[in-house]
Amino acid sequence: MIASRKHGALTPADDSDLSQYSSPACSLHEFQPGRMPDAAPHVQIKRIYDPADPADGFRVLVDRLWPRGIPKQQARLDAWARELAPSTALRKWFHHDPKRWSEFCERYREELREQALQLEALRQRACKQPVTLLYAAKDRQINHAAALRDTLLGSCSSPRQWC
Q1: In three state form, how does the secondary structure of the chain look?
Q2: What is the pTM of this model?
């Protein structure tokens, strides 16, 4: 059986009988010997105030404003993706209120639809190397970088809805 590419995924050229493969997931790599599906994205979040580590991989600041007290040399950034940060209006509305977290995530994902190309580029990079999303917020659990990470990893209610 010959494999062909269709919309970025491997599909059999002849769909007549897939039962010869061990499972649908395994059949992907059985079409082409040595070809494994793309790795799962590796995305972590970290405060910009924490020391840089070689394990961080590609370091990208995802805040709209530059963090106070951090010289650019100390930040050791590979990129600054201001466009992936929540809008000023959304950030001010949220004000890190845990009661607004769920609605904030919904509104933020809605804003991120405008940035589908940048999100996909970052997700593709995360499939090739670790990506660390840097943020300045004090709360390590409830912050926009956590919502962005979940969106990149497809952990939201409709994983690819924003694309």
Answers
A1: CCEEEECCEEEECCCCCCCCCCCHHHHHHHHCCCCCCCCCCCEEEEECCCCCCHHHCEEEECCCCCCCCCCHHHHCCCEECHHHCCCHHHHHHHCCCHHHHHHHHHHHHHHHHHHHHHHHHHHHHHHHCCEEEEECCCCCCCCHHHHHHHHHHCCCCCCCCCC
A2: 0.70
Q: What are 106-151's pLDDT values in tens digits?
A: 999 999 999 999 999 999 999 999 999 999 999 999 999 999 999 9
Nearest to 1 by CA among 24, 20, 25: 20
